[in-house]
Structures are given as C-alpha cells and as structure tokens.
Amino acid sequence: MVDLHVFFFPAMAHGHMIPILDMAKLFASRGVHSTIITTPLNAPCYAKGVQKSNDLGFQMSIKILEFPKVDGLPEDCENADQIPSPAMLPVFFAATRMLKDQIEQLLEEFRPNCLVADILFPWATDSAAKFNIPRLVFHGSGLFASCAEGQMRLHRPFKNLINDSDEFFVPNIPHKVKLCLSQLAPHHRTEEKTEFTKMLAEARESELKSYGVIVNSFYELEPDYADHYRNVLNRRAWHIGPLSLCNRSLEEKAQRGKQAAITEDECLTWLNSKSPNSVVYICFGSVGKFPSKQLHEIAIGLEASEQQFIWVVRKGTNDKETEDWMPEGFEERMIGKGLIIRGWAPQVMILDHEAIGGFVTHCGWNSTLEGIAAGVPMVTWPLFAEQFYNEKLITDVLQIGVAVGAKEWVIGTGGNIKRVAVETAVRSIIVGEEAEERRNRCEGLKEMAKKAVEEGGSSYLDLDALIQELSSYPSS
Predict the structure, then answer these.
(1) Active site residue 33
(2) CA angle, 197 as apex, 170 and 119 as ends, to 5°?
(3) Were 343 and a residue from 64, 261, 358, 365 both cysteine, which residue would form a disulfide, CB within 3.0 to 4.6 Å?
(4) Topology classification of domain 5-245+451-471
(5) Which one of the listed residues 118, 239, 352, 362 is annotated catalytic?
(6) What is the pTM of this model?
(7) What's the CATH class of domain 256-450?
C-alpha cells in the first residue's frame, strides 16, 4: 500500500467542520496523512484535534487559504454561522467559490491522493480532475435523506398541491413516508431559478462526475437506503460513521466544536447528581435560533412536563433579546431541576451521560447520529435543510422518536410550537411504556453503531475498502 495523503475541505460552518475533523482524524488513525484545508479564522477550531492526533503519532496538518473580501459580507465573516441574515447565504457561498484558485495551487503543489470536498463546493470535482486527483463528495447528511430527496426531485409528487397543509407520499423509496407542502424547502416547491438553486444543481452534477460519496452513517442504521443509493440511484458511496465515535476520551468529547459556555466539571457534576434516563437535553444546533415568544413557550412547556432538563439557549445579539423570553421566576424555580447553557454546549459528552433519557433536536444529521450513537430517544423539531427527512427516519422508520409537530421549513428565526405540544412530547419521551420500547430500540442501535466502527464492522471495512482503492488509483 502506498503512503496516502488526503485533503479534507469542509464548508465553513460548524455543522460541516466538526464531522470533517472527525473524518480526518479517522483517516489519520489508519495511517493516512490527513490535511484539512480552511481559512484563518476557522483554523483554531481544528488546532487541538490535529495536535492530539499528531501527539498520538499520526500525521495531520492544516493548510490555510485567505478568505476573499466580498461586498455585502461583514468584515471577518468566514463562517456561515456568523452570517447576520439567511439572505446573505448566497453572498457567502459566492465568496467560497473564489477560493478555487488557491485550492488548485495547493493541489498542484502537494498532489494528494484524494480531495474530500464538501457538497457545497461543486467546482471542486473539476479542480481535482485537472491534476488527475479523485474527488470524494461529503454530503453531511444520511442516505435516507439523500434517497428521498433524489426521488422527490425526479418525480415532484407535490406539483399539483396548493395548500401548505396538503400531504403527499415520498415516491419510490422502501418505506411509506408522508410530508406536507410547508415542510419542503422553497426551492423544491417552485422551479424558480436563483443563485442558490443554480449552486444546488451544480452540486448534483459535480457529484455525478465525482469519484463517489463519503457518508457519515453506518450500514445497519439505514440498510434499505444504503442499498437503494448504490443499486437504484447507481451512486458510489462509502459509509464510515458514526464519525463522532472516534472521540473516545472525555476531553475529546468536551472540546469538540467551539469553546463550550460551561466547564466540563460543572456540567458533569450536575449530570452525576441525576438518575439514569431522567434528564431531557434540548438543543437546536449551531444555526437554529428562536424568537422570544417561542423560547417562552418552550420554557412553560418544559416546566409543565415536570421533567429535568439541560437546555441550550442560543444567545441573541444583546442581553435583552437573550432574557426577555424567560417566564417570571422560571430560573429560580428550576434550580436543581433545569440547567440552562447560554452558548455552545459539549453535546457528545452530554448525550453520552447515563442521566440523559431524551433529546429535543432540530434533526440536523450530526445531532441525529450523535443521539443514535448515544442510544437516546428523540423529540423531533426540524427547521430546514434535510431535517424534515431526518425526522421521518427517526419517527417512522426507526421508531425512536416523537414529533413535536413542526410543519414549517424556515432558516433562521422561526418556531410556532405551543407549550402543550412541548409538554406532551417531552413527557412522552421519558415516561411510559412506549418510552421504554423506544429506549430499548435506541439501545440496540447504539450497540450496532459501536460495532460498525470497531475492527471488522461495516464502517471499518468500508473505510478499509476506500483506502485500498485510493492506494491503487493511477496517480498523475
């Protein structure tokens, strides 16, 4: 086997950066020289993980690209999580397209054996091809969502529907899955051409021309869809997850992502005082942000549910926006019963704790898979992207979650779920016979996830097969 050097180029958003760092560490642990490509202000997010791998005797490095200055983007805005408004996303992605020349210079200089580039960089396939370097696409989602979305684009089963509440079945997939019109992304519902839809079309085209797709999932989680993706859609794919399981120590789990707004000790001391499966963890990802009115409803619903909780509340732009949602006396009444984290939370460390018995989630794929790997049942509250598909995987296919009733696809500030729905869903995920059945199913999936990444497991073998293929690829 030749010495392999692989470039990893994630989109500049924490939901993409975190799994790519895990992936690069995983490749490095198998003897591959892993290099992460990023920009100056994003580099610190990778520094500790890279250093830790190198301390263990593996080979990892970081290469820095200068982020372009673009009219319409705030100064020092190098991460999608920092964008003030969703309307600025097209400007941000237009800026990332301008990294093309710098990437090609690096490819020419270092001639890696492979470029793993985010789905949001459709131009990367052609850039890699210039130097006869195979490009692997990183989706950031699971295969169920990829298959469902592929069939929806092909057949457009919603094209004659009018009302937001009109329902339809996702066509030509192995399970019966129903959605309503308002849960679809605006660019699905209309055929209007925008810069964003143009980029998505380019991404699909570049995926078809690429060497294949690398997926943060494991075969046993969605076997029908792994087979459907490869055999029906005829796509080459390697599932090598759950990637979060490469973080084995408490330190690695606690330091994953941004700087946490709570210390490891404070968090663990609180959790250690609780009984197994008694705490609900509530978090809506790095982008999900609710108006004060919705936060108020969540607070009242949580208190009424009488369940213990850890709630990650995303900071507003000022103190008033952060705190005007809180019911009078709420925090005082919740002392010992509820822990509020304002900012970033060490999510994998929290989910893996035995006290956690439920997870209220936006159904982002990272969170979904982290919940599954930890064996935790979920309350599903999707917001945008492929999250409504992920909800259906959790509730309808795997039957390990309860839907809170979110029906509206919205980026940024949104949310119109009432307190009673929050109370009912949170209680039902912890208490009762159905909760116990869901917990048992979750435990089964947790064991499968662990086995998948161990030597001889499905993800371990898929990564082996991929590394072997890349080793024998005719380099330039």
Answers:
(1) no
(2) 80
(3) 261
(4) Rossmann fold (3.40.50)
(5) 118
(6) 0.95
(7) alpha beta
